[in-house]
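Handout, section 3.2

Students often ask what a structure token actually looks like in practice. Rather than define it abstractly, here is a full record for Amine oxidase. The first block is the sequence as you would receive it.
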Amino acid sequence: MNPKLPYVLLVGAAVVIFILSCMLLSRGRRSPGCESQPSIVEKTGSVSQSLVFADLTPEEMAQVVRYLQANLGLPLVDASRAKPSDNCIASVDLQVPAKAEVLRFLDGGGARPAREALAVLYFGNQPEPNVTEYVVGPLPTPAYHRDVTVQKYGGKVPYHRRPTLSSEYKQVGAFLESVAFAAAPSFLQEVLEYDSTKVAFQTTAPHGFQPGDRKSWFVLFQNVSGFFLHPVGLEVLVDHSSLDMSRWAVSRVFYNGQYYRDMVQLESAYVQGRISVEKVRKAPRDGDFSSMKPRAPSAALFPLQYEPQGPRYSIRSNLVVFQAWSFAFGMSVSTGLRLFDIRHKGERVAYEISVQEALSVYGSNCPGGMSTRYMDGSFGLGRYTSPLVRGVDCPYLATYLDVHSLANSQVPRVTKNALCIFEQNLGSPLRRHYSNLQSLYYGGLVNSALVVRSIATVGNYDYVWDFIFYQNGAIEGKVQATGYPSSSFLHGDGLRYGNRLWEHTLGMIRTHSINYKVDLDVGGLKNSLVAHDMAFEMTRAPWSPEQQIERPRLTKKVLDTEDQAAFRLQSKMPRYIYFAANSKNKWGHQRGYRIQITSFAGDHIPEASSMERAISWARYQLAVTRRKEEEPTSTSIYNQNDPWTPTIAFADFINNETITNEDLVAWITTGFLHIPHSEDIPNTVTVGNSVGFLLRPYNYYDLDPSIYSHDGVFFTSEQDFTACEINPLACLPKTASCLPNFPPFTYDGFQNM
């Protein structure tokens, strides 16, 4: 044996031990935490100006309540415990100033508009009960109020049109339990094993068939998790139109395909054995098949996104600035998320983008389902904005904001983490090209966009509302639907109206229609509406006249009137339709913003329907009208409970007025048909249930503004693409090898329910 061999082996072992020690030490060393860098944000927008659109603070809401209590000269009961015969404050929200006033302030150096609130009051304790709307101001110290009801609606709002308070639903529930159900003890106990803790109710709307009706079907379900999928077959029609609750009565009862005059007749038929009983298997408290508890244990963690150098957007009060974008945001109690004064590169492109309404029309062979036409704005898309769960509803490191509201109570309510704002890498290029012809290069831009999100949970449905801002100057409005499908008790010919989801559960067919208001100001206040499309023309090849060529050509049309600009839901609409400015770009084209709609809506309710005018906005996939201060919304919270004489009928907005070189508003309707299926169990997924619209620059710029983005990547075959100064992606091992600081998980969604 070579005498040097032991020494060589010893030295080799020492080297191996040293290398392994280094590896272990490096593995144990924690990567540095991410540090925020100064954001590159264009100086645009002013907090002092954006506050003109800011939601009311809790202090301002409380001041309005105190002022009304002291100055109306009438007793006001807290809406949370008010009877129909009481006076109460139903809601308090921001009164958005008139656009002309705001623009004088924002653009012309004019005075700041008075900050005011809009208070909706129910006057049930009057000789002529009615709903009255007051503008109260100036805030924060109110000194005046003025009745604007007649000015807005042409007359007093009849009391029967009032949206139903939570207290009224509780009172109807108490009536059912203490009065109605007392008339059928044997049926309820032996068939349903009834006690008040085992039953959940879902109500329907509208409440009847004619003005003045307030008759509601209450559908009974097992009170378990996901109760919407556990109907028991019993539905009760309650007439609660009287302001005297002692006069409330059961008008009709439905059980397993049969109608009865009242609970007394149902009980009598049961005792005499004249009822076909369908006993429903008692579900466990967790709902069994309707439980959303995962059926699999946790495994490898899903991907997360983070900002290695901190957020690249800023939020100051209600003003958001992101790259070339700035806008103000707010939350309406009735209509939900809304944006104002949206600017790109410092120039306003839209004055307002807001949700208007979410409508769902159901079909069933049960009375509750077949009579349901929910207009969710009446219930409150903003009021029912739900607390967001960090890491699921929005990225974990998004910015979360609270929302304050006052509705159905005289005490302001806070919804924690009701809004989230985040920049999202969409995982695909916004644009790119790989050149392997002539010159060799790669150029691309990551598609990173800013998202503003809220989620409204109205009963069984959850609506995920997004406004998305892209680096090329495009804005997207999007809604994704999830939550539980409503169901009916499966009987008879029920499969004509949906699919069977469980033993006794019919997933009811329904249409969903969403309406938006888009007040574009493209290159200024005055715009025109222009349609571009294509048509094939036949021509002879100039170089070979005996040959024919079919070539597409551009078609152009200016839409001069509101009638021309009202496109029915299923009609053909020009594929390029845009708001055109009075200015031109470098190439001589009118600067514009194009409206592009994504929708697969079901059919609209027939116009012969007695209630269709209340939802006539849903006739149109797009309608462009002259902007009028007296037409601020496409619908009214009062339309739900009296759709037969609607307080606002959108169809009246369209009266053939000229829309050339005017301040215009686009009313966009998008939606989808939902036929629930077995994969909607336990509940509906967002995939495939996403609709909305895009606002895209169309000759607005001289070239794509995203070419000025700091995120661009470009290198040629002759460059060192591993060098940071050539290719920022090459620096990622240094610039993005930090560990983000994940704050502790918290959730306040179950407090103050």
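Discussion prompt for tutorial groups: The radius of gyration is 30 Å. How would you have guessed this from the sequence alone?
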